[in-house]
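Follow-up to my earlier ticket, as requested here are the two runs.
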Amino acid sequence: MAVTQQLARVTTEYLNFCRQASQASPDANPEWNPPRADWIDLGWSPESLRRLCQLARVGPAAVAALERSTYGDALVDVSYLDHDDAVGTFGPPPRALAPAAVAEIAATLAAVDWEAAIAALPADGQEAAAALGIDITGDPRPYLTRHFEALRTFYQQAAERRLTVVLWWD
């Protein structure tokens, strides 16, 4: 099974519940189980999306927002989710973004001209993949577009609902 980037939208109250469950559990199980409708799997796309935005010169604010949207912040403590029965223990510890940061990211990603960004790639699919440093069969544009649009929509909905976003690799 491949390790991929996962994100979940949750309320502050839900994170408090998980923290309390972790503290009360003999094995520190946080009882993490956010609704699947508020969960997204970005696959291996985060690094390729960042590379494309840098290549397309979408601007430092957009690149920083994209990086933050997939790295999270250390300001929100979700270390109690680093548990086999929660987000697992693959990759770096889970991170999160508070609702205010989520809103900033959503606004910045909404302003990205995706068509212009994707147009910065070479016309040939294999040349486009090579420019991004990825090994993919065929043209990477549909894969990148699908994941960028999903990420942008995910953050927009999280911002509208004033939710925290938790990030991890699984």
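Run two:
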Amino acid sequence: MPHLLVIEDDPQLRSALVRALRDRGHAVATASTGMQGLEEAVTHRPDLVVLDLGLPDVDGARVLRMLRSVSEVPVIVATARDDEPEVVMALGEGADDYIVKPFGSGELDARIKAVLRRLGTGAPEEPERPIRVGGLVVAPSAREVTLEGEPLELTPREFDLLCYLARRAGQVVSRRDILAAVWQQPLGGADKTVDVHLSWLRRKMGETAQHPRYLHTVRTVGVKLAPPGSPAEDGDPSGGDGGSEDGSEGGADA
């Protein structure tokens, strides 16, 4: 039985979430303030935290930063706003997923199960051979990436995304497929999640949406990983991935 911690200051919403999540087979602890939530998370080590950003004592983003400094517990952020800066901030501070208020308990339960399922997936029984795409080498078993012989420092989610694309090098992959495979959201989710991580990957790989080398946005279809100099990429010259290339997509990675 998964043990959850819900950090939410609204007593009615908190009570409703507790009832709904317990009915779905979760053990649930609660906290009404950020500091209480931090103490609960450190003391009792839940399997997952649902964190409201609008807390009365400490800003939710700060709570997330403090939590990340002492724990790798998965966090789903609950936010009342669906604007890109809010999404980028949550992912950049280390959230594993986010959900926009108001939301149904069924959707929250599905996201909780998806995050726990993704983090609980074991490694393949036999080591998978490194994948080479031009000067890019992705080693799935070692979870290492090099570009032109130089190592790339990627977050776990960035690696999962790049590895997924590398396994399908030369193919156009839709954002829905990426969300289903990398974020374990088979019914789809927010394209901004994919776009933000693509923007971060591009930055680390020394390219931009306007001048891609490996990561190509294919207009209205999806994304393709291909080596430099490959035939017509049908790229979207406008970038089309939702992340700006001037650094405004956020300074930290999820």
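The only thing I checked on run two: Helices lie at 11-23, 34-44, 60-70, 84-92, 105-119, 156-167, 175-182, 191-204. Let me know what else you need.
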